[in-house]
Amino acid sequence: MTDVNLKDTDWQLVINQITDEVKPLLQHGKVADYIPELANVDSNSFGISVSLLDGREYTCGDAQMKFSVQSISKVFSLTKAFSILQDDLWKRVGKEPSGNPFNSLIQLENENGKPRNPFINAGAIVVADCVVSHTEDSLNTIINFIRELAGNKDIKMNHAMFRSEKAFGHRNAALAHFMKSYGNIESDVDEVLDFYFGHCSLSMSCEDVSRAFLFLANHGIHPISKRRYLTASQAKRINSLLLTCGTYDAAGDFAFRVGLPGKSGVGGGIAAIIPGLLSICVWSPGLDKHGNSLTGVKALELFTTKTGISIF
Ligand code: DON
User: Fold this and answer.
1) C-alpha dihedral over 99, 79, 51, 277, to 10 degrees?
2) Residue-wise pLDDT tens digits, 187-215
3) CA-to-CA distance for 241 and 312, rounded, in angstroms?
4) Domains and CATH numbers, the chain
5) Helix, strand, or coil here: 87?
6) Where does the pLDDT of residue 289 fall: very low under 50, low under 70, confident under 90, or very high at 90 and above?
7) How far apart are CA 109 and CA 105, in angstroms?
8) If you measure from the C-alpha of residue 8 to the centroid of ligand 1, how many angstroms do you get, rounded to a whole number?
9) For a FRET experiment, which of 96, 175, 204, 286 has its CA 20 to 30 Å from that of 263?
10) pLDDT in the model for residue 3
11) Which residue's CA lies nearest to atom 1 of ligand 1?
12) Is any ligand 1 atom within 6 A of the Cβ of residue 119?
């Protein structure tokens, strides 16, 4: 992976420097407001958390502050659906970058209701349907699953966020009904949307998210609990999708600048992993025009540049 001497890397120093260097950028992003409750946040916040497979953790800034995980949670529902449906999942959702915004409806009709990938909203709604159709009490099941991955029983849904998503989620409702018309949604549309809005509305800190991503950096096994969540091959496939589709129509730019598989959310969080080494989460609510945290992408770019470690 690298000729960098990992023993010499002072992780705390690196993330302290990054936190200082990105400060001037904080005012340049735009906080998402298409879900009104999302705008209810301090745009000057910045947090960063690094979790190493050997158990060491390093944090700086607002790393303990809770934020709305939004699309980062799609990785957890995908993990659940993939472990339930195995490769049959890919009959329902594709594996190609969409090159379109995350909430776009444009490709769905041409492609007969099969979304391009599991991270655009249409794909995540199909994934949600897979979980809802195959689990009892699906929202509590996914919340408990995420709590277990993060090692934090206090992770909760933000109910005001949930209500706001539901009240303003007309595009998601359109996507779900449209896919239902193609037979690509099995369960009741409202039930599927409640599950999808529910996991997007979870509040987690950078520390929670970086811990919860560790299994993806470790071939599907959580390094602390030693529990296996995915096979090594499945973990490889999710990481590949994170690289190609995790930041939507900016995935090429993100790969170019950061060089890591990563997943963003419109709450301003971005989680990324370095296989065999660590997971990292950055959070800053101001977004760029693609819906990714403007300062968060820069912070991750600085992280791989300063440490000399990426997947390439
Ligand atoms: O469905 C939505 O629009 C949001 N719950 C999630 C979108 C999101 O986080 C896209 N990420 N950058």
Assistant:
1) -80
2) 999 999 999 999 999 999 999 999 999 99
3) 16
4) 6-307 (3.40.710.10)
5) helix
6) very high
7) 8
8) 38
9) 175
10) 58
11) 121
12) no
Closest Cα to atom 2 of ligand 1: 121
- Distances 186 to 48, 76, 122, 126, 127 between C-alpha atoms, Å: 39, 20, 14, 9, 11
Chain position carrying tokens 């390094």? 223
pLDDT one-digit tens code per residue, 5-49? 677 799 999 999 999 999 999 989 999 999 999 999 999 999 999
What CA–CA distances, in Å, run from 300 to 3, 71, 185, 218, 259?
20, 18, 36, 20, 9
Q: Please provide residue 220's backbone torsions phi and psi, each rounded to the nearest 5 degrees.
A: 95, -5
Backbone torsion region of residue 282, taken as left when φ is above 0, otherwise alpha when ψ lies between -120 and 50, otherwise beta? beta
Q: What's the rounded mean pLDDT across residues 146-169? A: 98
Q: Is 291 in the pocket of ligand 1 (CB under 6 A)?
A: yes
Query: What is residue 188's predicted lDDT score, i.e. its pLDDT?
Result: 98
pLDDT single digits (tens) 237-270 = 999 999 999 998 999 999 999 999 999 999 999 9
In the numeric block, which tokens belong to residue 167?
Answer: 């009240």
Dist. CA 184–CA 90, nearest whole Å: 12
